[in-house]
Amino acid sequence: MNNKEDNQILLPHHHSQDEEKIKAHLPGEEEIAGVSEALKQLGDPSRLRIFWLLCHCEECVLNIAAIVNMTSPAVSHHLRLLKSSGLIVSRREGKEMYYRTADTELAQMLHHMIEKLGKITCPRTQDGGQ
Q1: If pLDDT is split at 50, 70 and 90, which confidence band does 27 have?
Q2: Cβ pair 47, 41 in contact under 8 A
Q3: Count of C-beta atoms within a 10 Å radius of residue 70
Q4: Which of 9, 14, 58, 99 has the fewest CB atoms within 10 Å, measured from its CB?
Q5: pTM (2 decimals)?
């Protein structure tokens, strides 16, 4: 049972001397919500592939669909979810919409994490880029 007294949480068991320091740095629900939403969106293999692709280029729906071998409506659905979670952005050029990864620290970190975990070589490193 956790009792709150003067914003202190009394733990039923004390296993570590670092408990107070850890509790002081524990992110709140609002702080972690964006990360949670991003990870939820990237939990789908199709969205993960689309996100990775858009980390390396800006593309329209038709080209993305051709590259990942999916229908345009399916790709549009995944793009809407990725965009609503803030992982990608879009721009209009005439009648065409182009998508790319958002220029955020979270998106960049997720890009690098995907490549490290999946042991995927970033095309930019092969070409002498980042």
Answers
A1: confident
A2: yes
A3: 17
A4: 14
A5: 0.77
3-state secondary structure string across the chain: CCEEECCEEECCCCCCCCHHHHHHHCCCHHHHHHHHHHHHHCCCHHHHHHHHHHHHCCEEHHHHHHHHCCCHHHHHHHHHHHHHCCCEEEEEECCEEEEEECCCHHHHHHHHHHHHHHCCCCHHHHCCCC
Query: Residue 121 contacts by C-beta under 8 Å, 6 or more apart in sequence?
Result: 115
Count of residues for the chain?
A: 130
Instruction: Find where tokens 């979670």 sit.
Output: 85
As a whole number of angstroms, the distance between CA 100 and CA 90 comes to: 6
The token duo for 60 is 């329209």
- First vs last C-alpha separation in the chain: 50
Q: What is the largest CA-CA distance in the chain?
A: 63
Section 80-108 average pLDDT: 95
Contact status, residue 110 vs residue 87, Cβ threshold 8 Å: yes
User: Where do we find the tokens 């789908």?
Assistant: 44
Whole-angstrom Cα distance, residue 130 to residue 14? 45
